[in-house]
Amino acid sequence: MSFDETTQEDGEEEQAVAAVSLAQVKHIILILSGKGGVGKSSVTIQTALSLCIMGYKVGVLDIDLTGPSLPRMFGLEGKSIFQGADGWMPVKVDTNAEASLSVMSLGFLLGDRGNSVVWRGPKKTAMIKQFIKDVYWGELDYLLIDTPPGTSDEHISIAENLRYAEPDGALVVTTPQSVATSDVKKELNFCKKVNLNVLGIIENMSGFICPYCAECTNIFSSGGGERLAKEFEVPYLGNIPIDPKFVELIENQKTEEKTLTELYEASPIYQIFKDIMQRVLDQKHPGRMS
Ligand SMILES: Nc1ncnc2c1ncn2[C@@H]1O[C@H](COP(=O)(O)OP(=O)(O)OP(=O)(O)O)[C@@H](O)[C@H]1O
C-alpha cells in the first residue's frame, strides 16, 4: 500500500499511536539520503552529539532495519534493551554533558555484529510501527530518526506513522559526487509528496581536512548541494569535509578515557558541524508541544 492509499481507520490509529508515545518529544528530525555510504549515519551521530553538547535532551531512533550501524558508531555494541513499565527503554550513551542521549536500534535486538535481517515490506512496516509506539523516550528536546538510503518501505512507513506527529522536517545528506545523480532529487521529491518539510541539504565529504595541519582542501568539485538546494527552494546548510580524525574518533572511542561527547567537542569537525546545526536551530520550528 502506498502513502496515498492509507484508509481513514489507519489514519486514526496512527494519530493515536504518535500522540501517546511521542507526547513528551518536542522536535522530530529525520535524516535522509538518496544513496548509501554518503555519511547519513555519521550526520545523525554528529547532529545528536552537537545537540547534546548544546544542552538538549536527544533520542536517536535507527530504522535502518537491514543494516543498523548506530549501535557500533555510538560505542554501544553488545548492549541490550529491556522492557520497562512504560515500554522499551532505549540505551543511554555516557555523556559528560548534562543533557541526555539515548539510542534505539534494531541492532540491539540482533546480537552479533554482521547479523542482518531480510524482511519483506509488511514485517518492516510492523517493526517501525512498534518502534514508534512502544519505545519510552520520556522527555526529549529532539528525536532524530536515521533512515535507510533511498525511498523504501521504511520511508513510507515512517512517513505514515509520523504524519500526525508534526515532525520539524528532514536533513538530506549527499556527497559532491552523488549530488549530480537523480537519487537526491528522488529523495527531495519524496519529501514533497509526503509533505515532509526539508530543513536543508548537507554536502558531506566535501573537501579534506589534513590530519597534520587541519587545513581544508577541496579535492572534488563542490557546490552541487547548494545548486540543488536553490533548484528545490530548500535551505543549504553547509558542507562537511572528509576528516580522517572523525573516523578514528568513532573507531577508537572505547579505548579513550573520555566520553564520546567530550572527544567530539574537541574535534575540528565539531567546529564545522555546529555552524550547520545552528542554521537548523535558527529556523525556529515551533515544535510539537508549543
Ligand atoms: N565527513 C567524513 N569524514 C570522514 N569519514 C566519513 C565522513 N562521513 C562519513 N564518513 C565515513 O564514511 C563511511 C560511511 O559513512 P556512514 O556509515 O555514515 O554512511 P551512510 O550513508 O549512513 O551509509 P549506509 O546508508 O550504507 O548506512 C563510514 O566509515 C564513516 O566513518
From TrEMBL:
GO molecular function, one term: metal ion binding
InterPro entries, A to Z: Mrp-like_CS, Mrp/NBP35_ATP-bd, NUBP2/Cfd1_eukaryotes, P-loop_NTPase, YlxH/NBP35
Location(s), subcellular: Cytoplasm
Keywords: 4Fe-4S, ATP-binding, Cytoplasm, Iron, Iron-sulfur, Metal-binding, Nucleotide-binding
Family recorded in the similarity comment: Belongs to the Mrp/NBP35 ATP-binding proteins family. NUBP2/CFD1 subfamily.
GO biological process: iron-sulfur cluster assembly; tRNA wobble uridine modification
Stretch forming the signal peptide: none
Protein name: Uncharacterized protein
HAMAP family reported in the protein's UniProt record: Mrp_NBP35 (MF_02040), NUBP2 (MF_03039)
PROSITE patterns assigned to the protein according to its UniProt record, in alphabetical order: MRP (PS01215)
UniProt source species: Huiozyma naganishii (strain ATCC MYA-139 / BCRC 22969 / CBS 8797 / KCTC 17520 / NBRC 10181 / NCYC 3082 / Yp74L-3)
Described function: Component of the cytosolic iron-sulfur (Fe/S) protein assembly (CIA) machinery. Required for maturation of extramitochondrial Fe-S proteins. The NBP35-CFD1 heterotetramer forms a Fe-S scaffold complex, mediating the de novo assembly of an Fe-S cluster and its transfer to target apoproteins. Required for biogenesis and export of both ribosomal subunits, which may reflect a role in assembly of the Fe/S clusters in RLI1, a protein which performs rRNA processing and ribosome export.
Record gene name: KNAG0L00760
Broad class of where this protein is predominantly found: cytoplasm
Highest taxon of source: Eukaryota
Chain coiled-coil ranges: none
Residues binding [4Fe-4S] cluster: C210, C213
A single GO cellular-component term on record: cytosolic [4Fe-4S] assembly scaffold complex
Binding site for ATP: G34, K35, G36, G37, V38, G39, K40, S41
